[in-house]
Amino acid sequence: MTAAVDLDRITCTFAAKGGGSYTAVKDVSLSIAEGEFVSVVGPTGCGKSTLLNVVAGLLRPSSGTTSVFGETLAGINRHAGYMFQSEALMPWRSCLDNVTAGLQFRGEDAAVAREKGEAWLARVGLAGFGDRYPHQLSGGMRKRTSLAQMLILDPKILLMDEPFSALDIQTRVLMENELLELWSANRKSVIFITHDLEEAISLSDRVVILSAGPASHPIGEFAIDLPRPRDVAEIRHSPRFIELHDRIWHAMKEEVLKGYQQTRNKVVA
Ligand SMILES: Nc1ncnc2c1ncn2[C@@H]1O[C@H](COP(=O)(O)OP(=O)(O)OP(=O)(O)O)[C@@H](O)[C@H]1O
């Protein structure tokens, strides 16, 4: 079967601040199957967002090829929806107008866009909130709006860069469960970036570990064979979860310490 996303020996080298260059990721090969939920974890600054930007088509790698459903990616990845850590809502637009923005940019009929927007707001638990503005919503509600904004365009691939990391722990668990529910209803391929190993295990089919930079690359991957549907709060107490957590943490601990040391050295230098 053709992979949804196939990264073939991707290397990204940037110009460094004081001259010279910095290779963030080197020779990264990674495939994501259709309908698969893959989390990428790794030490801070190892290149997780860089890889996601490559898949989104926002960053052209220095070398290597990205294929999307078997076609070489050149330019923006039109099959992908993107959700960032930071707020991406337009403060001057109402919640409904934020959700329907992509449809409007595509030239969809206003009445149809409105109807779809309201249906999506209801699906993410925000029925009746369409006329509120982002500053009138809680952090969790803004995340739900962002989720609806991404899903309304029905992308085949979801690229999520620490989407829930700014939320308090209770809201975060609710959002993770909501994401799983929406995902299982209509399975998309997901690449989910997170620092949180528990979040990665509880959501994913597979967890990929990146090494510390420079020249970061995958150093291990683990199939997550926990049964679905999952309740992310409950599954964390299951013996299999604890076993997987121990194994993955063991595999990544050294890299996390290396990454931490490098960040410290950068600050001290
Ligand atoms: N446009 C750029 N120019 C120069 N260096 C960059 C650029 N983008 C990323 N980098 C560097 O590449 C490395 C990887 O960055 P990236 O943001 O991908 O890491 P990350 O794993 O997502 O980090 P974090 O876990 O802290 O979110 C970092 O050292 C960063 O400073």
TrEMBL record:
<comment type="similarity">
    <text>Belongs to the ABC transporter superfamily.</text>
</comment>
<keyword id="KW-0547">Nucleotide-binding</keyword>
<dbReference type="GO" id="GO:0005524">
    <property type="term" value="F:ATP binding"/>
</dbReference>
<keyword id="KW-0472">Membrane</keyword>
<dbReference type="InterPro" id="IPR050166">
    <property type="entry name" value="ABC_transporter_ATP-bind"/>
</dbReference>
<dbReference type="InterPro" id="IPR027417">
    <property type="entry name" value="P-loop_NTPase"/>
</dbReference>
<dbReference type="Pfam" id="PF00005">
    <property type="entry name" value="ABC_tran"/>
</dbReference>
<dbReference type="GO" id="GO:0016887">
    <property type="term" value="F:ATP hydrolysis activity"/>
</dbReference>
<dbReference type="InterPro" id="IPR003593">
    <property type="entry name" value="AAA+_ATPase"/>
</dbReference>
<keyword id="KW-0813">Transport</keyword>
<dbReference type="InterPro" id="IPR003439">
    <property type="entry name" value="ABC_transporter-like_ATP-bd"/>
</dbReference>
<keyword id="KW-1003">Cell membrane</keyword>
<keyword id="KW-0067">ATP-binding</keyword>
<feature type="domain" description="ABC transporter">
    <location>
        <begin position="5"/>
        <end position="237"/>
    </location>
</feature>
<protein>
    <submittedName>
        <fullName>Nitrate import ATP-binding protein NrtC</fullName>
    </submittedName>
</protein>
